[in-house]
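Sample intake sheet
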Amino acid sequence: MSAIPPSQEASTMISAPILRILHPKLESNAAELVAQNLQTAARRFEINTQRRVAHFLAQLAHESGFRPLAENLNYSAEGLRKTWPRVFTEQLALECQRNPERIANLAYGHRLGNTQPEDGFKFRGRGFIQITGRNNYTRYGALIRQDIVNNPDLALQVDVSSLIAAAFWLENGLNQLADEGGIEVVEAITKKVNGGTLGLDERRRYFLLAEQALGSSAAGNTQFIEGSP
């Protein structure tokens, strides 16, 4: 693998072909748009070495497949009991199942800085790396200079979602973690992003694939990477 020098900016690393190596079903036009915006965000928030970029792309590939997503709250009663057993009794779960707005307002009400009755749904998870709750929307909105508190759906736009993801990365010390190693630190990074280790094996696979793709890009070839999904 041909390493990219640490001083080389991420704007020369993140490209549509590399995103499509990680997610081949991502359409070309979409990949170009996402790559351009991730380049800008990565440069702004110091994701500027091959290893940092590889870890960053691996996490985004698993979290959202490079598509800004809104949290899916269409839970069954059983799903509600498993996910929020302290919030939903059996009876309440039956009453709320398949009602995302009510579910969000109960699950996230009076938590994460939410103060208003509808805040849970208003500030549900959105983005490449989903942020949740009024506190996070306020914090990251200030960092990226976007009013996502009054306009939370802005977090579903590629440019804003890219900035949020990169700001989250820097603010949570993930550049420093990425600098500590390769596949051996994927678990520690995942815990910061996910709060647990959901999808750890896939995240590790994406990291190896991203690392190889970035090395091949430096060598001038991103047409085929062995092991692509």
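Comment: Confidence is low (pLDDT under 50) at residues 1-8, 220-229. The chain has twelve helices and two strands.
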